[in-house]
Amino acid sequence: MPRHIVCLTFDFDTQSGFIARGMTTPTPLSRGEFGLTGARRVLALLKSLSLRATWFIPGFAIESHPRLCEVVVADRHEVAHHSWAHVPPAQQSRAEEESDLKRANAAIERLTGKPARGYRSPAWDLSENTIDLLLAHGFVYDSSLMGADYWPYRARRGDRVALGEPYRRGEETALIEMPISWSLDDYPHFEFVRTATTVLPGLQSARAVMDNWLDEFRYMQKTVDWGVLTYTMHPYVIGRGYRMLAFEQLLTNLQAAGAVFMTMEDAAAEAKEKMFADET
User: Fold this and answer.
1) Can you tell me the distance from the alpha carbon of 209 to that of 205, in angstroms, rounded to the nearest whole number?
2) For residue 168, what is the DSSP state?
3) Residue 103 is part of a domain; what is its CATH number?
4) CA 72, CA 77: separation in Å to the nearest integer?
5) How many domains is the chain partitioned into structurally?
6) From the centroid of its chain, how far is CA 29?
7) Does the predicted model carry a pTM greater than 0.90?
8) Lesser CB count within 10 Å: N end or C end of the chain?
9) CA-based nearest residue to 16, from 238, 234, 264
10) What count of other Cβ atoms lies within 10 Å of the Cβ of residue 209?
């Protein structure tokens, strides 16, 4: 029987993403602070529709805004790992990355009573050490790579790449990759960012973006009998009022279309049983 899973995920960065980029003046920090308002709106909407989601929360946000993070847990959402302070691991040494991983997981364990089983890299930029570290620390899944759309797959380590040479695939690991896409992330569609070298215009129509996201689900239904589709959102982005209206309509449309909503941990467990059972 066809089964089409949707994972709603929220990167609850608050101010951490701006601080990690050196944007520490009052205005960018206030943009991160708006994430608290956005998170309250998202949590209320999910509760009204009886939906559970996965919240990727940096340790910084857990320690800076503990009461709201406690609401995330009280509402039975999954809390997953999103670094300590939103510094991409590709910018860290192995020792720095492991220290960051452990520090953030300790904050998650204090919040939820258990360490995280899922991980998402800041800026979706893994280092050559990330997969090994995730395996060493007992993670079940990662959600930072883009090698598929509706099918979880085994994360690899040791891919070899050099200009002028064929691409060499590395070793598949036990870590389940729950793939993502920038096209299904709210940030590039909606955020206005201006730096000395780049401009990210964003500010697209919320209705148009949500229509595209719904069409992605419809295509999954049309082409596969079983699949997982992951949407990535940031409370300080999706939490604007007009975007919340469009997002609510997307959720009701997905429900009407037969979407099965799951946390990423539960979807990864189903993927392991369905896709990789003969490997264990």
Assistant:
1) 6
2) B
3) 3.20.20.370
4) 6
5) 1
6) 21
7) yes
8) N
9) 234
10) 21
